Known about the structure:
This protein is mainly α. It has helices at 10-27, 32-53, 73-104, 113-123.
Amino acid sequence: xxxxxxxxxxxxxxxxxxxxxxxxxxxxxxxxxxxxxxxxxxxxxxxxxxxxxxxxxxxxxxxxxxxxxxxxxxxxxxxxxxxxxxxxxxxxxxxxxxxxxxxxxxxxxxxxxxxxxxxxxxxxxxxxxxxxxxxxxxxxxxxxxxxxxxxxxxxxxxx
Length: 159
């Protein structure tokens, strides 16, 4: 806190800390909806922290006030950029959440079966560099990468 002058208030600092803390806590959950809320809270908390870093004063328009009393425009520009990035990430997470809910009826991120097998192998000290499935890289059904569907060109189809 600055003494004597317009500095950040304690309420704004505490609010930014609470937003960041709640956002990080929600990011560690398994539900995509809670992760989405965590991203939003974390984004707003970081924006408040960036705002606290700037110098307050008059509007940063040249000629409207003496140069020493103008506020710093860089934090404001950074916040605008961060808002756009947070909005894009929020839209992406909304799409992923909706797709997960549409396909599985739930928005929780499930455990990966292969990760679980690796964890059990590590616990038993059986982890090796060999393929755990034993069927080889070409016959492993989990490693199948289907080719994208081919487009038919004129003359390829029947007729």
